[in-house]
Amino acid sequence: MAVHDDCKLRFMELKAKRTHRFIVYKIEEAQKQVVVETLGEPAKGYEDFTKCLPADECRYAVYDFEYLTEGNVPKSRIFFIGWSPDTARVRSKMIYASSKDRFKRELDGIQIELQATDASEMDLDVFKSRAN
């Protein structure tokens, strides 16, 4: 599975310049490559992010999660999310699962990985508990 150059470029913008809050990636099966599907502006929040994940299709996503530590120190962690809902086609789940590690290696700077099959597996409490 090839990775479109735009995927890495947009990720570097998120990591270095904070020009995006999140990025949703999609595998274009016809071209056999991962492409950027959605870019979330810095002002967008968690709700906007979850609305970009289709209910019955797999996706990869990167989310820049900002939070406060117990000492009220602002921090952020870059999450990689493998979104594979139970209602997705089996073939799609297999393609996403088999190419995930290679794709993730292309994105240098991922700090935490989540695998989610429904919204409850990646709600804000999960992000908070994994970030600390």
UniProtKB/TrEMBL annotation:
Listed name of the protein: ADF-H domain-containing protein
One Gene Ontology term, aspect cellular component: actin cytoskeleton
Domain ADF-H, residue spans: 1-132
Keyword check for Transcription: no
Keywords associated with the record: Actin-binding
Transmembrane domains' residue ranges: none
Family listed: Belongs to the actin-binding proteins ADF family.
GO MF assignments: actin binding
An example Gene Ontology biological process: actin filament depolymerization
Domain of life, per lineage: Eukaryota
UniProt entry tagged with the keyword rRNA-binding: no
